[in-house]
Design a protein that fits this description.
The protein is α+β, with helices and mostly antiparallel strands. Helix content is 33%, strand content 32%. The longest helix has 23 residues.
């Protein structure tokens, strides 16, 4: 049996979750991002918007998630030598948590970066031998 869990007996409360993840890229790709030399445009700005758009529609992607009115969302990036870390913070005042939204947001942001720089990451055969997503996790969750 499949069902959406009832939250009708729960009270609204302030919810917050932070999802975090990393995309491993070539150093030259990270330098291209830093230098504004990505053909499709500003990879981090586009990734930020994509992540926020995606997290607001989590219930459309994950079938049994409740639609949640998001009251705040933020995505931040840290550029390292061989990777970019993304952190997605989501807030809502509702009866259920926002950790799935944080995970969807961070994943969509990282996938958007990949899409924008994939031409820089491909090898001669068109594959991505070193590009990968890592460590996607909920790193903090609060309910007040």
């Amino acid at each position: 049996m499949t069902k959406m869990v009832s939250i009708s007996g729960k009270k609204d409360s302030s919810r917050m979750a932070i999802g975090k993840g990393e995309i491993v890229l070539r150093r030259s790709t990270i330098e291209a991002i830093k230098g504004g030399r990505v053909e499709k445009g500003d990879a981090l700005t586009v990734a930020e918007v994509a992540g926020i758009m995606a997290l607001k529609r989590t219930h459309e992607t994950i079938p049994l998630c409740h639609p949640i009115q998001i009251t705040g969302a933020e995505i931040r990036f840290s550029l390292l030598k061989g990777s970019i870390t993304a952190e997605c913070r989501v807030e809502a005042h509702y009866r259920t948590g926002v950790e799935m939204e944080a995970l969807v947001g961070v994943t969509a942001a990282l996938l958007t970066i990949w899409d924008m720089v994939k031409y820089l990451e491909k090898d001669r055969t068109g594959n991505y031998p070193t590009t990968r997503l890592e460590g996607i996790a909920v790193v903090e969750k609060r309910k007040a």
